[in-house]
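Dear Dr. H.,

I hope your travels went smoothly. While you were away I took the liberty of generating a structure for the chain from your last submission, since the lab meeting agenda had it listed for discussion. I wanted you to have the full record in hand beforehand rather than looking at slides cold. The sequence, exactly as received, is reproduced here:
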Amino acid sequence: MTNSFVYGWARTPFGRFGGGLSGVRPDDLAATALSGLLGRFPEIDPAGIDDIVWGCANQAGEDNRNVGRMAALLAGVPTSVPATTVNRLCGSSLDATFIASRAIETGEFDLVIAGGVESMTRAPWVVPKPSRAFPAGDTAMASTTLGWRLVNPQMPKDWTVSLGGANELLADRLKISRTRQDEFAARSHQLADRAWNEGFYDDLVVPVPGVELSRDEPIRSETTVDRLAGLKPAFRPDGTITAGNASPLNDGASALMLGSEGVATRIGVAPRARIAGRGTHAVDPQDFGIGPVEAANKALRHAGISWSDIAAVEVNEAFAVQSLACVDAWKVDPEIVNTHGGAIALGHPLGASGARVVATLAKRLESSGQRWGLGAICIGVGQGLAIVLENVNA
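The corresponding predicted structure, in token form, is as follows:
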């Protein structure tokens, strides 16, 4: 077995639902991330890329028919380069990173692009096909933007509660208050705004042609705990989850260049982080928010280190409550978590978020000189993924 490394990254800015990227097709967003990534490696012959592994959660509209392959063709990658699309919902592009890195570690591939895309704005409405021609009754359209739809009636009701409803249950069980959630959300916006102002994201993000969006659109620099406290609960009249302490609906794409150690001489770039451990875990569907807890513990065991070694944590902020639940369970210092903002502020375009987490984590380690970092993401229907990175220059 050999090692797999992160060599580089590129993502689009993340747009708000109906916002700056709403006019851009998801396959074009994905092609932008791919083109932006390849533009950072002038010595790479694109024909030498062994595979493209792409994540996408929806795949019901313009992102249909293997959007990874469509994006590669639109980006001008040679037709001889294969591509596949994987779906682990919110963890899709992190799963793509897992698949790509495993192929490198077994020696099957040397150079792979992993990433993902989501346009939650452009996700279509769908209508179930009738079981017989010309039914007399009415039917309803289902939005494919987020969450359960066209649910199998055999699924237990406890499993198919809304994502927000599931996390209200989590807040009740773990006694995580509205105040803690609002404080976490305000911190996310403040840190994200500061990170952009200080230039942290400048080499992480590439522009989308024809769009005047220079940074992540959901960030609200004016956000305070007091302002968040004035928002109404979104899922339960007496609940704690609001539009302000949960991630928004977003559009965007992210890409990573992964390779073996030996490929460095061929592409003219030194590796930036080693993929040291991976973890996958599943829980009851309604408990998906804490799926990353044991996934992270597994990733640490695979890396051969412990929590005491971890200097940087990037957890995808689907909801403040589930992020806090994970941080509490891991017993890590909250000050090392999402120090440049998280998904509540930056955005959570489902299929793109995992690769965004990896790139942000690798950049954090590189900037700080710290050695070990962990990234994690919760996944609807009861799963979690986690990855451990090692700074190769620490």
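Two observations you may find useful: Residues 279 and 299 are 4 Å apart (CA to CA). The mean pLDDT is 97.

With kind regards,
E. W.
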